[in-house]
Amino acid sequence: MKVERVSYDVMTPSAARGILEAVHWKPAIRWIIDEIRVLKPVRFQSLRRNEVGAKVPAGRIRSAMRTGAIGDLVLVADENRQLRTSTILCDVAYVISAHFELTAKADAHETLAKHLDIFTRRARKGQCFHQPCLGTREFVADFRLIEPDERVPQGIS
């Protein structure tokens, strides 16, 4: 599938983890996805995008780092542009249920409660370290925290 890009039918656990890590990530914790609940019917759409079809070889980058000569790192996008078709999910909504565990990198003063408080505070405010996305950066993921007293939306059958 190198030519045409096709989305999975549902968000992957690694994509869900990426959204949670955008809100709160530290080496001391590891997110574990318990459930991804689909709230809207699965629908696809096709779109065409211009993409750059070449990369600067890693050897050239290493050489430039050693020598400081950056002239070989130039890549002219107009000369390497390719039109690619992507089949993507559209109008999606999910409920992600997850928890985290402390890793071996956690200090003695770090607790699950501390990290849960940080995550909850940031999620309530809509704060994130970087804008979460689904797939590539063009497909921004909006999120909100479902409060403990709030009814969790049911998924579709």
TrEMBL record:
Database matches in InterPro entries: CRISPR-assoc_prot_Cas5, CRISPR-assoc_prot_Cas5_N, CRISPR-assoc_prot_Cas5d
GO MF annotation terms: endonuclease activity
Gene Ontology process terms (BP): defense response to virus; maintenance of CRISPR repeat elements
TM spans (from-to): none
UniProt KW keywords: Antiviral defense
Protein name: CRISPR-associated protein Cas5
Organism of origin: Symbiodinium microadriaticum (Dinoflagellate)
